[in-house]
Design goal:
- It is a single chain.
- The protein is α+β, with helices and mostly antiparallel strands.
- The chain has 10 helices and 4 strands.
- A 4-stranded mixed sheet has the order 2-1-3-4, with helices on one face.
- It is globular.
- The N and C termini lie far apart (50 Å).
- The protein binds glutathione.
């Protein structure tokens, strides 16, 4: 009989959705994947809401732990890091620093860049063009990219010069600066860090799972991706 894989992941190709994939591809964790189709609003079905009360991706179910469910991408990374003893420094201060930068991503970079994306790529496309929130979220996102750039000067990774879950959480957001229309011009340390992580084989595999969304990174037919993506949120306006 085929052995069940440890983790069942529910996700989609987005900045939050790639985080657990990057971790598991890096760590060699075996996982089953259910790709959540936003077009069909699968993230809002009663069955899925039992796993993730927020109705968003990602979510994991740990089959080796009585089907314990974890939602919120930062909490998922923390859970996986502790379970597999990977990408989380042992030294207590470095461990705290990892949590600090993970929180910095979850509380700041994700929400601000997410709104920058929403107002420019979705709302504007659906006929709701609002310069004030666009200015606010783009400016705030740029400020956050500058903080990363300053911190990364002279460092390979965010914490203790080792690749941690803080990098794994932050990378898919900072890498999507094109889609958020947030300039990273004049931020060489941030760019060098992005390239460093781009070049990891696991990153390259992960960004194609469950499927690529190249427009996030400024590749492919941007106009078509924008229209298709905005279409999903038609109900919002
Ligand atoms: N704080 C949550 C945010 C999750 C989130 O916003 N996921 C988005 C994709 S990046 C989603 O599921 N969107 C679908 C929707 O809003 O219905 C996390 O980090 O897990």
């Amino acid at each position: 009989m085929r052995k069940q894989k440890d983790i069942h992941l529910y996700t989609a190709p987005t900045s939050n959705g790639w985080k657990p994939i990057i971790f598991m591809e890096e760590a060699g964790v075996e996982y089953d994947l259910t790709s959540i189709d936003f077009d069909k609003r699968e993230q809002k079905t009663p069955e899925y809401l039992k796993l993730n009360p927020n109705g968003r991706i990602p979510t994991i179910v740990d089959r080796t732990n009585n089907n314990f469910v974890v939602f919120e991408s930062g909490a998922i990374l923390w859970y996986l890091a502790e379970k597999y003893d990977k990408f989380l420094p042992k030294n207590p201060n470095d461990k705290s620093l990892t949590l600090q930068w993970l929180m910095f991503q979850m509380a700041n970079i994700g929400p601000m860049m997410g709104q920058a994306m929403y107002f420019q790529r979705i709302a504007a496309k659906l006929g709701e063009e609002h310069p004030f929130p666009i200015k606010r979220y783009v400016k705030e996102s740029r400020r956050l990219m500058e903080i990363l750039n300053t911190h990364l000067e002279g460092r390979q990774y965010l914490v203790a010069d080792e690749y941690t879950i803080a990098d794994i959480a932050t990378y898919p957001w900072a890498r999507a600066h094109y889609w958020a229309k947030v300039s990273v011009d004049g931020l060489p340390h941030l760019k060098a860090w992005l390239h460093r992580i781009d070049n990891r084989e696991a990153t390259q595999r992960a960004l194609e799972i469950p499927e690529p969304f190249w427009a996030f990174f400024g590749k492919g037919d941007i106009e078509e991706s924008e229209c298709k993506n905005a279409e999903r949120f038609k109900g919002d306006v």
